[in-house]
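Can anyone check this?
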Amino acid sequence: MFIQEAAIAKFDDHPTVKWWREQAASNQPVTPFPLNSDALRLLCWEAGADDVGFVELDRTAIADQHSDILRAFPPTKTLISFVTRMNRENIRTPIRSAANLEFHPNYDHANEVARRIVRTFKLLQAFGKCFPS
């Protein structure tokens, strides 16, 4: 019983828990900002992307993928394409192990960038601080 009470006390004292409770108690209206391409580009750069571009779902060049995209995520309006840099020399080498040492960490980094983008976007939406424009 003491362990449960101590765990709850630690939970109540956690800075994130305190912050959430303060936000809920404040009842202050939040003014959302438009999430336009400039704001979204900045969000992606801050997440670790080296370059980023956007493709509207209605573009004819991706018409053959339209139904697959909407089946996976029906509210999709725009696709985000981002890149991360790699060491060119390591990729060009005929030694496969050296190339793999460049590809594999970069693949993990790209996945982490994508996670950060989605996480940030979800947090902004959760707080009602953004809306798509």
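Reply from J.R.: I decoded it. The longest strand covers residues 51-56.
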